[in-house]
Design a protein that fits this description.
Shape: elongated
Strand content: 15-25%
Number of strands: 6
Distance between the termini: 21 Å
Structural class: mainly beta
Largest sheet: 2 strands, antiparallel
Strand order of the largest sheet: 1-6
Order of helices and strands: EEEEEE
Number of helices: 0
Mean pLDDT: 77
Radius of gyration: 15 Å
Helix content: under 10%
Length: 65
């Protein structure tokens, strides 16, 4: 299920899927302490790197922030 800010599925085009979704991820490093930022989800008990889905009107640079 898409968020209310996501665009609808694209009509048939050159993409491999009608449900094409643009996402982004990043790794935050703190070299002075040899640390990496990760996120922990208390509900699923999983760790993951920062990521995001591009919403309508959102600049690509802000997708993972």
């Amino acid at each position: 299920m898409f968020s209310p800010w996501s665009s609808a599925a694209l009509p048939r085009s050159g993409f491999a899927s009608q449900d094409f979704l643009l996402g982004s991820g990043m790794v935050v490093l703190q070299p002075s302490f040899d640390k990496v930022v990760i996120v922990y989800d208390c509900l699923t008990k999983e760790y993951f790197l920062l990521r995001g889905r591009k919403d309508i009107g959102e600049p690509s640079e802000q997708t993972a922030l």
